[in-house]
């Protein structure tokens, strides 16, 4: 069965998507702009927290939809990979926005820098979404066990 859980249920809210993209874009801008590590480390932590909270909230809202997909035959791996794929795309979009900011503000852009920024954005977003993806993959086919 070819079920893709990324498109299951409620989409991530526009505010959450925008905040993730802005956080990742700012991180990329600071990284390429060679900001000191004392300013970069808190920005990395902030970006990871923003992406984690956005995906944790999305997984909470999609519990019933993921349970329904599991009833129709979606495996735990499909649910897990679907959440991580969504995070990777969000990271790439944020990195592209950051590269646009670098090009506009700093007027410096090299191929190596662009590729590194795309990897930083995608890998950072995927790492932040691992825990929500694990939680989503553990949703049983019978549905959420807790009543809200």
UniProtKB/TrEMBL annotation:
<feature type="domain" description="ABC3 transporter permease C-terminal">
    <location>
        <begin position="43"/>
        <end position="140"/>
    </location>
</feature>
<keyword id="KW-1003">Cell membrane</keyword>
<dbReference type="InterPro" id="IPR003838">
    <property type="entry name" value="ABC3_permease_C"/>
</dbReference>
<keyword id="KW-0472">Membrane</keyword>
<dbReference type="Pfam" id="PF02687">
    <property type="entry name" value="FtsX"/>
</dbReference>
<feature type="transmembrane region" description="Helical">
    <location>
        <begin position="12"/>
        <end position="32"/>
    </location>
</feature>
<protein>
    <recommendedName>
        <fullName>ABC3 transporter permease C-terminal domain-containing protein</fullName>
    </recommendedName>
</protein>
<keyword id="KW-1133">Transmembrane helix</keyword>
<keyword id="KW-0812">Transmembrane</keyword>
<feature type="transmembrane region" description="Helical">
    <location>
        <begin position="115"/>
        <end position="134"/>
    </location>
</feature>
<feature type="transmembrane region" description="Helical">
    <location>
        <begin position="87"/>
        <end position="109"/>
    </location>
</feature>
